[in-house]
Every structure is written in structure tokens, then in C-alpha cells.
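User: My advisor asked me to double-check a structure prediction for Xaa-Pro dipeptidase before group meeting. I don't want to rely on an old file, so could you generate it fresh from this sequence?
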Amino acid sequence: MSSTLFNLQLDHIAHLQRAYAPMLSEHGFDSLAIYSGHASVHFADDHTPPFQTYGHFMHWVGLADVQHSWLIIQPEKRPQLYLYAPADFWHLPTHLPEEPWVAAFDVHFCSDKITPPLIGNAAIIGDTDQLAASHQQTMQAERQPEQLVNSLNELRLFKTPYEIACIREANRLAIAGHQAAQAAFIGASGELDIQLAYLGASRQRESNVPYQNIIGLNQHAGVLHYQHYDLNAPKRRYSLLVDAGRRFRGYCADITRAYAGPDAPVAFGELVTAMHDLKDELVKGVAPGVSFIALHEQMHQQLAEILVAHGLFKGTADQAVAEGVTRLFCPHGLGHSLGLQVHDVAGLRHSDGTPAPAPEQHPALRLTRTLRPGMVVTIEPGLYFIAMLLDPLRNTSLPVNWRLVDQLSSCGGIRIEDNVAVTESGFDNLTP
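Assistant: Sure, here is a fresh prediction for Xaa-Pro dipeptidase from the sequence you gave:
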């Protein structure tokens, strides 16, 4: 691992120590206990689903699979890490990497699940509802203080150089998976085999992905969160959509690419190219002081121009936007904040923690903030042929080219997504 990355991580931890101290003081707390969380078994079973460490715990240690552990933060004192590490011949014992960041903590290995030592007026955050009743009864502290949690969420919205380096590396690893997925598609593989190619090239198990990969062939590319993998390749290959990510030291990449297959209409391939161009234009618009809502509205205006230029809508671009046509061809938001969580925190709150909800006409938008340096966002315009959304338009007089829509419906849809950091002077596209 690069010494530069290690140094950036030490700077990151020092930044958190400086930032937490005034927050705890402002909200009247002497200490903060952060619980890592733990996986819960399936009903009537002893197996658990994949687990992800609580984000504010991960913010300090960068480990995405730590369970039953605690982090105690006090101003002007070293953070205390109580790491659950039982003697267990069923599982590999918990261990920490031999890396410089570990020396920034006082580490306590615990063979049993503990109640953390709480100092003074303490707060506890994390999913503590699942803790044993005996643990909950002995913890005299304020649970999930909303204002403090909002402040910590706001802190996470702005990434340190270490965090941006991690997201960049997660992108690099994910891109290798996307290249392998495209090659598998060219080789006439089915969805499951494309998924396996992605996992192999990006070097990760399916239980480690930051979100369930979306691998959709043909009409499945039009299901926004398509959740299955067909075992066999279809007879005709119209399209592929791959929305798939990777973690690096806890931080997420979230990348989407769409491809025209050999059986797709020529018009679909042209639309894929147009959507790549639209994504690039929107990325260029990322800069400090830019409203993300305004960028989202720009996406709809330029999407309308694409619909008109490619013959899908025979009216004007302004008409397509005003009549809500673009919202039916693209029902989701332009993007979201990205970090330790794929849909990262604080995107729908103002800096003071008050709600900043999505506009009524764009209810699916996950980020409503004005962009500032240090934010990392996704830019992901889409164009889909979803019958349940478009069919009501057939009963209107709006000039939709239904013949072309029907020809393209077998292709499902298109989404192109990059991960972009906001810099002091503009943007840094982290997706190579």
C-alpha cells in the first residue's frame, strides 16, 4: 500500500479528532460511543445476510465488516477502539492490518461482547436497538441525539483527500469489472456469467459489493433496480446495462454503463452515444456554488433535446419538459452523494440539519444541495422505455413517436454514471 495513502489516512483521522471535539462540546457531550453494528440472523435460522459496518464507525477505521465493536471518542484524547475478537474455531479471528493508522488508536481486543465504558455526559450512536437487553439497561447515555447525528452526517458530506483517494481507487477496481462485463456481453454470455466476470475482474466476493449489482440484458435494462440474474443467455442480444460498484477501505464506487448489442436497432446505439455525451456535459457543469437541483433540471432539458433530435418526440424540447415527457423517460434523479454509503448521508438536509426535500416535480432526487468543494456525487442521466410509465401518454395528443418507442422497447433503457468530486475550481472525475 502506498505510503502516501497511509499519510493521508493519518491526516484524515487527525481531521476527525479536530472536528469531533467542538461538535461534542456544542451539543453538551463529554464523550461519544459509536457502535459498529452487527448482522442479525434470518428468521428461524442461524445464517445472516451480508453486513456493513455503521458509517460513522467506518469513517474512523475504514473497515466495512467490523461487528460487535465500539469506538469511544473524547475531545483531546486518543480514540479508544474496543474490537470484538472472540476465540472462535468456526471463523477466522478478527485482526487489524499492520498499517500506521492503527497506532492512532488505543486498541482493546475483547473476547466477549462488552458494554462500552461511558465517560461523563455520553451519547451513543449506531444500531443499538438490537443489543441484548442487559447491555441496553446498563448504558446510561443519550441514544441517537438527532442534532449531533446531523452534524456528523454533515461532516461526512465533505470528503478529505484520503477519502477521495479511496473512492478513486474503488473506481479503478470497479472499471476493471465493467470492462470484463462488456467483454462477456460481446462473448454472448448471460446475466449470471456477466456478473461472475465482473466479480472476478474487480476482485471481490458478491457479499462484499457495496450494493447488489444490476446486470440487465434487453428489457431488464429498463428495470431500475433489476434484482435477478438469468442463468441462460437470451437468443437475441439487444442491450446490456451494468450498474456495479466496488469498495476500497470502506469507500464506494458506483458506476453504470450501457451497451448496444448486435441485435439492437441502429437508433439505440446512437442513443447510447448521445447519453454518454450528455453525461460528459453534466460532469463539466459540476463546480462549487452550482445547485444540484439546477443540474438535474439541465439534464431534463438536454434529454428533451435528445428525444427531439433522435425522433422520439416530434414536438419541441421545451414542450417535452413542460408536459412531463422527460420525467417519464427518466423517472430517477440525476445522482446522489457518494462515500462510505452508496447513497451517502446529508444529501436531503441543509447544512444546519433542517430538511431539504426533493422538489415536488422531482420526488426521486436524492441530493438537493448546492455543491461545495469536497463533495463527491454521482452523475447518472438515464433514458428508458418503461411501458408502465409511457403507456398513459398513448391516450394523449402529445407527439411521441410510438413506432420508434416500440422498436426500442426490447432494449430496456440506458444509464451512464460517473463519480465526480467537487474541487475548489471545478470538478475531478474519479471514474477513469
